[in-house]
Amino acid sequence: MRFLKVLFWLLLGGLVAGFVIYNGDERVNVHLWSGLIADFSLPLLLILVFLAGLLPVLLAYHALRWRMRQRITGLERALNDIRAIQAMPEPASAPAPTPAPVPAIPASPQGGLPLGDAQ
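Structure tokens predicted for Putative integral membrane protein:
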């Protein structure tokens, strides 16, 4: 993979060098504000314009990559904390007290409703 990267950059450098050699003597007039005119070499102007377009995208890419690494690190830390909590043995505790029995409600002498529910 590293070989392909090196090959790509060498080819790109060769293309830029060939462009500079072929168009090195070309001059471009850039009209600025208040009638100012800047005289640039064509290869220099194209390289500057390319870098002006590449740098904001490159900075946004690195910022996104840094942010994702931070999020992944935080999630891994939270996952390790959860695993550590689950791996801890529960302390032996005393048996839970048994609930008190519920008293029975006496029935009425007629055998119908309980005494407390008569209307």
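Strands lie at 27-31, 37-41.
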